[in-house]
Amino acid sequence: MARVICAGLGPGDPDLMSVRSDRAIRAARQVAYFRKAGRAGQARAIVAGMLRPDAVELPMEYPVTTELPFDSPAYNDALAAFYDGWADRLAALPGEVVVLCEGDPFFYGSFMHLYTRLRGRAEVQVIAGITGMAGCWHATGTPITWGDDVLCVLTGTLPESVLVERMQGADALVVMKTGRNLPKVRRALAAAGRLGDAWLVEKGTMPGERVVRLAEADCADCPYFAIVLVHGHGRRPEVPE
């Protein structure tokens, strides 16, 4: 069997990568990573300067990103064929290959789709990583949850009505997959009465990091790596005056 190691890279700053991932990446003779066609890829940028000079690189280029609606049959078919094909290629490789994955591979990571296809066909090891959302809430300098706070993680791709309902029922919020969904997310937060407490973190822990109140942000120009946060205010011991 081939051996596939997925290395969680953490939120973007190479210093926040685990020691185990660092060791696996520096020793790898074959390295695969996801990227958009024509781009270097964020995962590859994070490990710049870490790869062996003789490492064989295998860029896995998505067939579509935003060209088709994410819930359309054509989008699903294109990505299913993409993951099927790369699972076949990785399983057929001689020796060991390290697959790079931003954040944590089991938290909205693209590698999950390869993982389900590789089980039983290759020896698979997954190295956990700090999630992107953790990097973002640390960038705000404010704890995300206190005491008994309930944290709800949402995706901006959900229907607006579902976002409003979930936003009203949780103490603290994280909204992933913002990008072009940001105007919808902002409307939902306003309808839920939470917009005044919402923060937008762009490129958390990476060069160009930006933290701004969502109510003051330009929703028309939101990068892919952006997360919306609403901090909890739950139970805590009183601070002496």
- CATH H level of the largest domain: which superfamily? Tetrapyrrole methylase, N-terminal domain
In percent, how much strand structure appears in the residues?
A: 15-25%
Can you list the strand order of the major beta sheet? 3-2-4-1-5
CATH architecture of the largest domain: 3-Layer(aba) Sandwich
Give a verbal description of the structure:
- It is a single chain.
- This protein has 241 residues and is an alpha/beta fold.
- The protein has two domains: 2-130, Tetrapyrrole methylase, N-terminal domain (Cobalt-precorrin-4 Transmethylase, domain 1); 133-230, Methyltransferase, Cobalt-precorrin-4 Transmethylase, Domain 2 (2-Layer Sandwich).
- The protein is built from seven helices and ten strands.
- The protein has helices at 19-27, 42-46, 73-92, 111-118, 132-139, 160-169, 182-191, and strands at residues 2-8, 30-36, 56-62, 96-101, 122-127, 151-155, 172-176, 198-202, 210-213, 226-230.
- Strands 3-2-4-1-5 form a five-stranded parallel beta sheet, sandwiched between helices. A five-stranded mixed beta sheet has the order 6-7-10-8-9, sandwiched between helices.
